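Would you mind giving me a polypeptide sequence along with per-residue structure tokens?
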Amino acid sequence: MSKLVFPHPRMSGHPNWKWFILSTVLLGATMSALDVSIVNVAMPTLKNTFGVSMAVIEWIAMAYMLTLTVFLPLFGRLSDIYGRSKLYNIGFVVFSVGSLFCGMSNTAAQMIAARVIQAVGAGLLQANSVALITHAFPASERGKAIGIQGAVQAIAMSVGPFVGGILIAAVGWRAIFYVNIPIGFLGTLAALNILPENQKVEKKEHVDYLGAALFAAGLAAIVMAFNEVAKLGWGSQEIFLYFISGTVLLTLFVITEMRVKSPLIDLKLFKNATFLLGNLTGMMSYYVLFAVMFIMPFYLQKVLGYGVALTGALLTPIPLAMAVVAPFSGHISDKYGPRIMTTSGMLISALACGALMFMGVSVQLPMLLTVLILLGVGMGLFTPPNNSAIMGSAPREKLGVAGGVLNMMRSLGLIFGVDISGVIFTSLEHRYLAEKGFHNVQHVFSNVSIPVPVQDGAFMYGFFAVMTVLLGLNLLSAFFSATNNAEVDAEAAAAAKEFAEV
């Protein structure tokens, strides 16, 4: 007797069901992006609450970013084997549990441990988000969908400090973590009922845990080296050991990946120029974005003398401009390919960084606002088409790994943008002061013995160098984008034509 087969409640075959899948992914994107920016506002409060040093409190942010970054490829690989929908749903649960533990923390150690749990959940979400979108949407709509995701993330990051400030003032710092729990609950329900069923892997594959351990340890050592170099200096033995350990471990990882049957990261992916250059330029773009977001508050407050409220207001247009432009950019790339949008985006960002180089110690507010909006527009034009091209270049059975690598490169850009820019700025600022006769100065702007013009001159000396590096990275990214993606452009045009005929 034959069994009755009932249709699955998920209408994954319906042409419009992909938008429900996107909406579910957007819940995860909102939760993880909101958490990154909302926690930064609470750092001074947490320092006072736990009564610890700044070095300890920095690990509340560092533990999260380090865990997230080093495990993204592993989570992507696990999703390719065990199912992206399943891992995404687990991500909601783990992130919510981590948020609960963060809110319940009574010591800095408990908070750091809870942030690691949060980062595991965020990694499961991030490694699968772009892969789920890529699987659900045809090539003719993929850029628009990824653009919408980028817009939602940008909006969440821009409102995070505002929401965080209100919650801390009205309820207390624990509320900034508890706010994630209802979002996670809704996300879990949505993932269970909307995301497509996990595709069964035809051939049983093994997880390369040795490769995962080597990669995570090696990358962590490199990240730690850049994070600590501002405090210890390039000549430090500890920094040297970090770099040597990281290099050896990553070399062993590459050797391991070339020998195992089921590698953590299929290195053949990097033979595809679109995948390789797309990830490289993606990392450089986030380096630029977060370097600007890191150094501009100091410029606005210390040099221009703006208050905290105005500083926050001036930085908000960067993610908002990204949010406005991203869906448009993704839609255009679906029709004409990514090259026009990615190249123009990096050129506009280069223009913004070039303008920032010459701002000086006094500037007209409308001009400054225009430049910052330009930077957001440039990033909004670049990111969705670039991400779409990366994911489109990967085989469907490798989408999880591709998404993990993509998000890992974004995280590395964030970390390096802040850490390396901080080292460049501090080194040159101190060199300027030494030339003026002020040696071994620790707190420049609070040192009353240093004349204000000298303080401003030292700041602008380091600021100019940082912006020069960012300008160079933008131009290099524009060059790579212009010389890459020719085949992707042709494929996009053909897909758009076929979609229009349907």
Notes: The chain has three domains: 15-200, 208-261, 272-502. Confidence is low (pLDDT under 50) at residues 1-9, 495-502. The chain has 17 helices and no strands.
